[in-house]
Amino acid sequence: MISKAADYLFLALAAAPFVYYLLVLYSSRLFFSRSRQAASPNVDFTPPVSNLKPLRGLDPEAYENFASFCRQDYPDYELIFCVCDENDPSVPVLRKLMRDFPERTIRILYGSGRNAINDKVAKLVRMVEEARNEVLVINDSDVRVEPNYLRTIVAPLRDPKVGGVTCLYVSTQDKTFTQHLQSIGMYSDFYPGVLVARQLDGIKFTLGPTIVTTRAHLAAFGGYETIENKPADDLLVGRLIAQQGLHVELLPYAVQTVPDYDSPRALFTKRLRWMTVMRHMRPWGHVGLAFTQGLPWCLAVALTHSSAIGLAYVAAYLGFRVATTWLIGSWGLRQRGLWKWMPLVVVWDATAFVIWLLTFGRSSIRWRNVDYQIRGGMLVPVVPNAAQNSSQ
Q1: What is the C-alpha end-to-end distance of the chain, expressed in Å?
Q2: How far is CA 277 from CA 155, 223, 343, in A?
Q3: How many angstroms separate the CA atoms of 286 and 121, rounded?
Q4: Is residue 290 left, alpha or beta, with left meaning phi > 0 and alpha meaning psi from -120 to 50?
Q5: In which region does residue 337 sit, left (phi positive, over 0), alpha (psi from -120 to 50) or beta (all else)?
Q6: What is the mean pLDDT of residues 376-391?
Q7: Which terminus of the chain is more exposed, N or C, with fewer CB under 10 A?
Q8: At what angle do helices 177-185 and 264-281 cross, to 10 degrees?
Q9: What is the pLDDT of residues 269-297, one digit of tens each?
Q10: Mutual orientation of helices 307-325 and 344-359 as an angle, nearest 10°?
Q11: pTM attached to this predicted model
Q12: What are phi and psi of 108, to 5 degrees?
């Protein structure tokens, strides 16, 4: 009798990911359908904008990325780039940009003038100080946008209850196995978690490819200075804005990012770093991810129960995963040709499960060739002064 009850409990736990998948489908469908119905850009709301870009090194197709921000259909904005020094590889590209777009206000700042673990955030401290406008748009260097970008992402700030805006992102063009795997992981794993979080608790984070806010909202939590020695600065900005009682809006609008993963190992390492940081920032939520991973549960059922029960679980898992990937990737974000890459969903789920297991008991990460310990939510270099030396 006890073993029978234990067996039913195991089957119930193994079905928990299916409940999560149903919630994913509901949240995703609601997000994209409502967003499309409500999509009506406020073309009259165009406050002056300062677009901030911290740089280090040169990304693939960097000129085209930067140039897309110079082609904005927006009346008044400036572009501010901050690099370590004049020897940074991006400087010649930026100077060419200034020659090619003389009608745009483009400034290059050299160095942050600060000693910080997170050099990117230190650069943002300086850029915020030197920005001429109240509305700030912050994005990564690998982002490429359409001419309607600024009008679209700034529009929600018209509502005084909105303190931050962020949006989704897709790859410009996947060419390698690793790049396809990364995109499938976004559509099947990362975005489902984002959309469920939005449905259950609202958006309380921002995503690095686009952060829109104001100088006043940053100042209200102490500015970038307060997080320059912490990991996951992108996420923290949204959280600290939400803690002020303001809304953070997630738009269905998607920018493009140029993929730079040159190997499965590079993708694995980056994902491991991110998941380790998330475990320290949300320890109980990280444990709860056990009930969102259908693959290991279904395999466990298939190995311990009759073929009929095992087949039913595996079929349900595959059906939900294909439906989720199609709904978000193809229907929501309008990415073509995903069907041929659907088998990678299983590859991603297996990889994500292994990474999740590896994060437990792990307190170190490797970022930009420097090893760090995460202590009390802070980054601490394993070798003193290594972080500062790496940013020179």
Answers
A1: 67
A2: 32, 21, 28
A3: 25
A4: alpha
A5: left
A6: 66
A7: N
A8: 20
A9: 889 999 998 988 888 889 999 999 999 99
A10: 100
A11: 0.91
A12: -115, 125
Contact 221, 206 (CB under 8 A): no
Please name the helix (run of DSSP H) or strand (run of DSSP E) that holds residue 8, with its range, or none. helix 2-14
Q: What is each CA distance from 150 to 74, 117, 137, 223, in whole angstroms?
A: 7, 31, 8, 23
Lowest-confidence region among 113-127, 247-261, 356-370: 356-370
Q: Which helix (H) or strand (E) segment is 120 a member of?
A: helix 119-130
The domain 42-281 having CATH identifier 3.40.50.300: the answer here is: no
On whether the CB atoms of residues 324 and 24 are closer than 8 A, the answer is yes
Name the more confident of 318 and 264.
Answer: 318
Cα 230 to Cα 135: distance, rounded to the nearest angstrom: 24
Going by C-alpha positions, the residue among 204, 122, 126, 124 that lies closest to residue 163 is: 204
C-alpha–C-alpha distance, residues 69 and 79, integer Å: 8
Nearest to 116 by CA among 359, 372, 336: 372
Domain spans in the chain, listed from the N-terminal domain onward? 2-32+283-359, 42-281
Helix 294-304 vs helix 2-14: crossing angle, to nearest 10: 150
Q: Any alpha helices (H) in 263-378, and if so which ranges?
A: 264-281, 283-288, 294-304, 307-325, 344-359
Give me the residues paired with residue 207 across strands.
Answer: 210
Six-digit token string for 17: 């990911």
Residue 75 — φ and ψ, nearest 5°? -70, -35
Residues 6+ apart with CB under 8 A from 350: 295
